[in-house]
Sequence to fold (207 residues):
Amino acid sequence: MQAVEGLIPFHHESFPSDFHSQTWYKIIGDRNSEHPPLIVLHGGPGYTHHYLKPTFQLFARQTSTPVVFYDQIGNGNSTHIRDRRLDEAFWNVDLFVAELQNLVAKLGLQGGFSLYGHSWGAMLALKYVAMRQPQGLQKIVLGSGPASMALSKNAARGWISALPPRQAALLEEYRMGSIQSSTKVDHPLEELDKLTTLMKEPFPREL
Fold:
């Protein structure tokens, strides 16, 4: 199956004029297919495309639909902005909507495309449609999108409290910025994923 990947320049009004960022993308399948491309929006913010890759590689193969993966700004193979990591005002919905709009434009998808959004990606998809009313959008599919951020945060706090106290404390320290290295919270995050995502051993490498 064909695959092409690359980096797309992305600039937002909140960036300094001399700051240059890039969005990483990968297209699996034939762009000349009769089926419009499907853009996959991963969860988070803070995840990457990897956990959705096995499912949508299979989808692309079985349906001959080209699939566009990308890592949202600040994550994975896209530009990281570490000095703004804890700046909640900076990481706003408009930033991610603008990045998605830029991706669609730079890849020339205005002639027809669909969206699949998972978790936070489902919220992003809805915000994108409401704010930009994008040309060429044909279908939108939402997976496990939260009904509200307040409910989502309350649920997350409940799951974290179910972890052993030391692991829960490490996650709170990381959230507050006391711990700078994400590797120190890898194990607590893995245990949290086992509670909330998939109770399977061994845990899939993509997750």
